[in-house]
Structures are given as C-alpha cells and as structure tokens.
Amino acid sequence: ALYVARLWFRVFTGFRRTEHAHEGNALMLAPMAVLAAVTAVGGFGSVAFARLLGHAGEWPQPAVYGPSVGAAAAGLLVGWWAYGRTSAVLNTTRLKRRLGNVYHVVEQRFYFDLTYDALLVRPFARLADRLAAFDGSVVDGAVNGAGRAWARLSGASARFDGRVIDGAVNGAASAIRAAGERLRRLQTGRLAYYQKFAVGALLLLVLLALVVKGVGTP
Fold first, then answer.
1. b or e along 9-22 (b: 16 or more beta carbons within 10 Å of the residue's beta carbon)?
2. Residues of 38-51 as b/e, b for ≥16 C-beta within 10 angstroms?
3. Which of 72, 71, 46 is nearest to 59 (CA)?
4. Distance from C-alpha of 172 to C-alpha of 178, rounded to nearest angstrom
5. Helix or strand or coil: residue 10?
6. Least crowded by CB within 10 Å, which of 56, 116, 161, 193?
7. How confident is the model over 88-115, as pLDDT tens digits?
8. Which phi and psi (to 5°) does residue 94 adopt?
9. Burial class for 79, CB neighbours closer than 10 Å (0-12, 13-18, 19+)
10. pTM of the predicted structure, to 2 decimals
C-alpha cells in the first residue's frame, strides 16, 4: 500500500514535467479494465459464486480482513504523509537525511543482494572459472593427448601394415608372378624342345642317383 501510494502521488500529484502527458491507448487500458473487473467480481461475488458451485460460501470474518485492511490504510496514510503533501514532496531529501542509516539500509534492500552476491554468486563464479580452467587444461589436455597418441599409433600401424604386411603379401604375389612368367617360357609348343628337356632331366636324375649312390658306398 505504501509503494502504491508513493507511485500514485509521484505520478498524479507531483510536479508536472511535460505538457504532453496523456492517457494510454485502448491496448493499455483494456487489459487493466478486464483485470479490475475480474478482481471486483471475484471479491464481491465470492459468496454467490461459491453457492453456484454448491459450496457454503461466507464472507471473511473481521478478524481476518481487519488486520489487512488496517495495514493497507496505514500504508496509504504513510504514503500520503511522505509523498502526498506538498511540503512532504519538497522535503523528501530532508527526510532521507533524517533517517540516515535506516534509509541507507532500506535503499540497499537490507543488504540482501550484496550478501547473496558475496556469499553465493562470486564464490560460484570463481569455482566455475577454476573448474573451466581445470577442464580446459587437465581434462581436455588428457583427452586431446590421448587423441594425438592414438592418431600417432594409428599412423604407425598403418605404415607397418602398408610396408610390412602388404609388402610381404605383394612381394609373394610378385615373386609367384615372376616365377610364373619364367616357367611360362618353357611352354614353347615345340616337340624337339620338350625332348631335349626330358633328356636333360633324365641325365640330371641319373647323375643325382650316381652321386647319392657314391655317397652311400663305404
């Protein structure tokens, strides 16, 4: 209530700062009118609405609404005394000076934001910075180091596979192909050449038999 009173007196009864002030358009007034109507109907028609729903509705007891109405009235009265009177509007600065530390504490929101920032926000920010640095230097360093080591190992394995394993397989294939090329030259299709080859092979076998026999004779 005090805040609403301050707003009302500062806006509608304060010093005029411009000659072009005017009421808002329909897009601004219509939602507020709807909310005000819903609030009025919900407040003054709560008993009838409860009966419509089949409930035993009743008006609040004075012990319930009395303190809230009294607090609202007190807030409005204090708001008028502080901001509604012409002399009070002119002497607001003097009132602030008179309150001194009390006004400073209220202006600083009872130091709640400063305490929250000092105890939670700043320590959390420092912890987040340290965790980010640890993640960037240690965790990412380990992951990137493992990635580089695996890349080097994969490159060495690929070179070994290409040079040794594939080299052995390709070398064996090349040797077999070369042997096949040489043996193919023996297939000339001439009978005389085959006879000479058979006689030569027979002579080699006889010579080998004689050598073996000679070696085995005591």
1. beeeeeeeeeeeee
2. eeeeeeeeeeeeee
3. 46
4. 10
5. helix
6. 56
7. 665 677 777 888 888 888 888 899 999 9
8. -65, -40
9. buried
10. 0.40
Q: Which residue in 35, 16, 17, 33 sits closest to 25, CA to CA?
A: 33
Neighbours of 89 (CB within 10 A): 15
Other C-beta atoms lying within 10 Å of the C-beta of residue 130 = 10
Q: How far apart are CA 60 and CA 47, in angstroms?
A: 10
The pLDDT of 30-54, averaged and rounded, is: 86
Tokens of 94: 């003097």
What sign has the CA pseudo-torsion 59, 62, 65, 70?
positive
Residues 30-40 have a mean pLDDT of 92
- Cβ-contact 207, 196 below 8 angstroms: no
Token pair in block for residue 55: 């409930």
